[in-house]
Amino acid sequence: MQKTWILTALINFLLAALLGLLLRYQFVNTLDINFRFITHAHSHVAMLGWIYLMLYSLITYYFVPEKKQVYTRLFWITQFAVTGMLISFPFQGYAAISISFSTLHIFCSYYFVKLLWKDLQIEELSERLLVKASLLFMLLSTIGVWLLGPAVATLGNQSAFYHIAIQFFLHFQFNGWFLFAVLAVLFKIFSLSGIKINSKNFKLFFSFLIAATVLTFALPVSWYISHPVFIWINAFGILLQLVAAIFFIKLIKSQWTLFWSKTSGLGKLMFGFAFICLALKTGMQSTSLLPEVAELSSQIRNFVIGFIHLLMLGVVSGFLLAYLFESKLVNLKSTWIKYGTGSFLLGFITTEILLFIQGGMFYYGSGIIPNYYTALFVFSGFLVLGILFIAISVLKTRNPNTVVEDSL
Fold first, then answer.
1. Where are the alpha helices (H) located in 2-123, listed in sequence order?
2. How many helices (H) and strands (E) does the chain have?
3. Tell me: the pLDDT tens digits for 285-327?
4. Which of 9, 122, 202, 395 has CA atoms 20 to 30 A from the CA of 234?
């Protein structure tokens, strides 16, 4: 695994977290910044600089045996696009320069898929299907981006068409590309641990999860087009997701002890955290079976942000950090990594609790938690410190194997 790539992704994660901290500070002491522009920079760097590039690194490491120079060049071109978005979004939002860098990133992702489709060498059915599904979902999600122009030109940026196009991109990025890619690496690690996957149960799990991912897009559609059919489609998708979860448990239950025995102590902590967040994410989505909850899910911003962070920081980033901890890029005895992990988990758990409790209080008209915004800002600082310490730990770790791989 290439150390420079991982460090680059972690630095992007740190910058995204700092932008998020700035957004939280805006509620404590108003600054002369454009909140919406900073939000765009925060979300793009987090998604495309941290998660995308970590998945890029992991997929090429685990599933492309013949490492080609083109992957290195493409990585740095993609990072150039991320840097461009980081610099341009805070000052102009969606405008010519930022859109140009965003478009460059999309074309880089297309070329990445083309390269992978040709170079992938995966023997295990589970890993092959998950990787290819993740890449197809990535391609599918970008349709939403290309529809934004026609949406603005025909109906304006306040139209249902415009907002549904955005939700299309986000839904199939988060629940498609990111989640399936994370699962692909997870099943690879299962395989390396000696776990044998029942192909029949996997095919059922995979089929139900694919169907659930497509059908649950009906929920964000229902926020902008009020019709009972979308509620019913989402409900069916949720039920299929629950069935998929049952098959997932069956797949790993019998051999879980084998996997767990080969996982480090800090790896156990982060894997456990990620699995708990995945269960919470599935459970929270299941509450949208109730029509009033489905409607509420888009009305209270605290719930929206809390759920997005649960998925992005808890599930996806949780697994990504767990994979990092199980690599040779981190010295798990280092004080930096121990304090970094503790700080990250403290910041995540406390901010999620604050967001959801305050969201509930807003719903019931119970006012606001005393010093709510100050507390949210302070505990968000622990997230930043955690990411910083983890990055320092990777930087300080010396391993001869990673030096060779960095010269790819």
1. 3-25, 35-44, 52-63, 69-92, 96-119
2. 19, 0
3. 888 787 777 667 667 888 889 999 999 999 999 999 999 999 8
4. 202
Q: State whether the Cα torsion 307-279-243-209 is positive or negative.
A: positive
Taking the whole predicted model, whether its pTM rises above 0.85 is answered as yes
pLDDT value, residue 399: 60
How far is it, in rounded angstroms, from Cα 161 to Cα 69?
41
Taking a C-beta distance cutoff of 8 angstroms, is the pair 242, 283 a contact?
Answer: no
Counting Cβ atoms within 10 Å, is residue 367 exposed (0-12), middle (13-18) or buried (19+)? exposed
Q: Rounded to an integer, what distance in angstroms lies between the CA atom of residue 311 and that of residue 280?
A: 9
Which regions in the chain score pLDDT beneath 50? 400-408
Residue type at 186 in one-letter notation: L
CA–CA distance, 296 with 307 (Å, rounded to integer): 13
Alpha-carbon distance of 371 to 381, in angstroms, equals 16
pLDDT of residue 403: 37
Query: What single-letter DSSP state applies at residue 288?
Result: G
Q: Which two tokens stand for residue 282?
A: 């599935």
Determine contact, residues 85/15, Cβ cutoff 8 Å.
Answer: no
Q: What is the pLDDT of residue 297?
A: 67
* Cα end-to-end span (Å), the chain: 10
The phi, psi pair for 80, rounded to 5°, reads -60, -40
Radius of gyration over alpha carbons of the chain, in Å? 21
How far is 260 from 67, CA to CA, in rounded Å?
Answer: 30
316's tokens = 């996806």
Of 281, 44, 63, 40, the closest CA to residue 179 belongs to 281
* Cα–Cα distance for residue pair 328/94, rounded to 1 Å: 40
Tokens coding 20: 């998020």
Q: Which of 359, 279, 312, 379 is nearest to 25 (CA)?
A: 379
Nearest in space to 186 (alpha carbons), one of 162, 214, 205: 205
- The Cα–Cα gap between 193 and 1 comes to 18
**3-state SS class at 206:** helix
Residue at token pair 């969606």 = 94
CA distance 314 to 282: 12
Task: Give tens-digit pLDDT for 247-276.
Answer: 999 888 877 888 888 888 899 999 999 999
